[in-house]
Structure formats: C-alpha cells, structure tokens
Amino acid sequence: MSQASNVLVEKAYQLAKERYASWGIDTEKVLTRLQSISISMQCWQGDDVGGFESSGGLSGGGILATGAYPGKARTPSELRADADMAFRLIPGKHRFNLHAIYLESGGVRVERDEIEPNHFRGWMDWAAERGLGLDFNPTFFSHPLAASGFTLTHPDDGVRRFWVRHGQACRRIGEAFGRHLGKPCVTNIWIPDGMKDLPADRKRPRERLVRSLDEILSVPMDPAYHRDAVEGKLFGIGSEAYVAGSHEFYLGYAITRKTLLCLDSGHFHPTESVADKISSVLLFTEGLLLHVSRGIRWDSDHVVILGDEVQAIANELVAGDYLGRVFIGLDFFDASINRIAAWVIGMRAMLKALLAALLTPWDHLREFEDSMNYTGRLVLMEAVKTLPMSAVWDYYCLKHDVPLDDAFLSDILRYENEVLSKRGH
Ligand code: RNT
Ligand code: ZN
C-alpha cells in the first residue's frame, strides 16, 4: 500500500480544520481531548486467552477463540513484545488489561487462591517503564474447579470459597497495580456460571452469587488506586438456558454496592443497543466499564471495527459528557488473523469512533432537537458522516508518529516475518 506524504496530510488537515471550524469545532482542542483518553487493550487477544499457568489453554467458561493463525505469544516476554509492537502502531497512551492466568511464577504451579502481586512484578515493571496503566480480571474458567460450570455460585461451599479467595487475591493484585503505577486499576469480575438447560432453581445460585461477591468486596480499597467492576451476560456456550450473573443481577448489584457496571457489547440480545444503556445506567451507578466487542450472531468476540454500534457508543460517551466516568476496554479474541493486527485494528477503530464523536456538532444537533426540528437534525446527522474526519485522523497519527491506516500493515508483516514466524506451533 502506498503512503500519503506528510505534506499532503498537513494540507488536508488545514482544510479539514477550516471545514470543522465552520461548525464551531476546534480540531486542535479535539485532538488534545482525544489524546487524554486511554483505552484498555486486552492481553488475551495476544494468545487466544491461553495464559501462562499451564499449557492447557482456554477451556470451559462458555467462551471460545477460533482460528489457528501462527505465531501466538507463548511466554510473558513474547506477549509483552507483541503488545509493545501493537502500541507502537496506536496513537496515544493506553492501558493493558491482564487476567489472573497471565501470572509469572517461574514454572511453579501457584493455586489461583494463592496468587500475589509478586507474580505480576514483570508486568508492573513493564507498564511503569512505558507509562501504561494496568487493569485486571480474576479468571473463573480454564480450571478443574470451574469444570462443572459453577464458581462463585457453586453449591459446594468449599469450591465456592476457593473462588471467593481467588477474587480476593485478585483485588489485592489490582490494588498493587494501582499503587505501583499511580493510576486506578479496574478489576473486573466476570463468571461463566450458568446452565445448559432449564433450571429448576434460578434463585439459589443468584443468592450464592450475592454472598460470594459481598465476601470478595468486603475489604474497602482506595478508589484512587482500585475500582471494582462486575460484568453480566445473556448466555454462553453450555449456559444457554440460564446465566446466574445476568444483566439485571449486576445492575442491581452495582447500584447497591457502588461498583462499576461492565457492559460488554456482545452480552445482550443482538437487537439491543449498549449505547442506549449508557445514559440510563449512569443515572444510578458510580461509573461504567465498557467491554467493546463485536458479536456476530452470538458473543463471538470478533475484532472491533468502526461500525454503527461502536460509533453509537462513542457518540453517547461524548454527547453525554461521560468520558470522566467511563473506563473503556476492548474485549475480543480472534485467532484467525495476525493477533497484533487484531489489536491495532480494534484500538484504532475505537479511537476513530471517539474522534468522530468529538468532531460532531452536538450543540447544533441538540438545538434542532430542542426546537423539534427533526428534519434539520437528520440532515445534519447525515452531513456529519462525510465531513473530513479522515484528514484529522491522519494528522493525529502523523503527530503521534504512528503510520496511517493504510500503512501500518507493512510494519506488522515485517514483525511477523522477523519474529512471529520463528515461533512455531
Ligand atoms: C466473557 C466476558 C469476559 C471475557 C474475558 C476474557 O464472555 O466477556 O470479559 O471475555 O474475561
Ligand atoms: Zn467481556
């Protein structure tokens, strides 16, 4: 692919700047704003949710990575190198989202309820050196004690308590991340617990889930370093009929316990809009965590692209002035394409959606709406779509010293040749 010259990018930007100015939008301010937004990039796209606990890989939990693209990261240092490569192609300063199974225990098996901040020292040092934030997730799957499909709702109190201790251990690790890096770590709880077929008892697993979560969250933590989030779901593979941690369950939980609510865009009925939920939920919760994903027919966790749903989410965040209360993270794991490209495509798509939202004349749109001029509103909404956003995005990439959209592939292919292709299966 050919690359536009810097001069061309600058020229196009100057014209775009004037065009946006005619709508009262200061593109310089917009770019400063965009630069202040950090997105949490999920570690698990780098190795198909494998982790470094054992060679077992992802099992159970009702989630699935499909594809066999060669070159996935097999060790923490490979995953860090791959993430470094991705971050070199993404404008801005961002965050990295770890799961408990990405610990480094020097080959010694450490039980999930015994993990400590020390097992994540390598990640903390790596993040600190680069000025990245870290987020965290307990791992309630890929484990013999989760094989039944139950963790925090398990009827056996011994098993349930094991997972409670895991959750508690993870919060301590998340807090250590926050203190080490001086910015809050969001520790997000998602459990797969549910049933394949019609349950006779929907009530008691949910009662146990409340109890387990209350036990996990019983230690208060400084919000300057640590925030808790809970993530619901509609169904998973093998939990088609019932999921204990449903949306209603966690909405109630987050409101009463003052945690963040995590909305994953793959976790609702396909015609439901996560974007529409934001302004409702934020009336009642402290804040939100977003798992921006792309479901196709089901919670398939495809790579995030610049589509209607992602744009609608970004629009809500900007139009509602919610950016200060919403943590944005990505959640997908596609093993069928180059994994670094997957990260870069998803992160850049989210940033472009935010940029487009920041470049939208919301005041004018609201004015039309307030005067019930819906014709004017629709005309302007359509006009905004083809304003020269790409010129502003190209300029942003240039200023951040990252390649343009049609140029980063060659960097990735070079890395694939030099590094990934040497890894073997
Ligand atoms: C699963 C949830 C959860 C996971 C990650 C790996 O349906 O979306 O967030 O994708 O924890
Ligand atoms: Zn998710």
Can you describe what's shown?
With 425 residues, the chain is α/β, with parallel strands linked by helices. The protein folds into two domains: 102 residues, no CATH class; 321 residues, Alpha-Beta Barrel (TIM Barrel). The chain is built from 14 helices and twelve strands. The strands form three sheets. An eight-stranded parallel sheet has the order 3-2-1-12-9-8-6-4. Strands 5-7 form a two-stranded antiparallel sheet. Strand 1, helix 3 and strand 2 form a beta-alpha-beta unit. Helix 5 runs parallel beside helix 6. The protein is globular and about 65 Å long. The chain starts with 5 loop residues before the first helix and ends in a 7-residue tail after the last helix. The structure holds L-rhamnitol (RNT) and zinc ion. The site of L-rhamnitol (RNT) has 11 residues, from loops.
Protein traits:
two-stranded antiparallel ribbon, binds L-rhamnitol
The total of helices stands at 14
Estimate the mean pLDDT confidence: 97
Whole-angstrom Rg: 22 Å
Could you give me the name of the CATH homologous superfamily of the largest domain?
Answer: Divalent-metal-dependent TIM barrel enzymes
Total E-strand runs: 12
Per the principal axes of the C-alpha atoms, what is the gross shape? globular
Provide the structure class. Answer: alpha/beta
CATH topology of the largest domain: TIM Barrel
How many domains, in number, for the residues? 2
Q: What helical percentage do the residues reach?
A: 40-55%
| Poorly predicted spans | none
Tell me about the largest β-sheet.
8 strands, parallel
How is the quaternary structure best described?
A: single chain
What is the CATH C-level name of the largest domain?
Answer: Alpha Beta
Strand content: 5-15%
CATH architecture of the largest domain: Alpha-Beta Barrel
Strand order of the largest sheet: 3-2-1-12-9-8-6-4
End-to-end separation: 30 Å
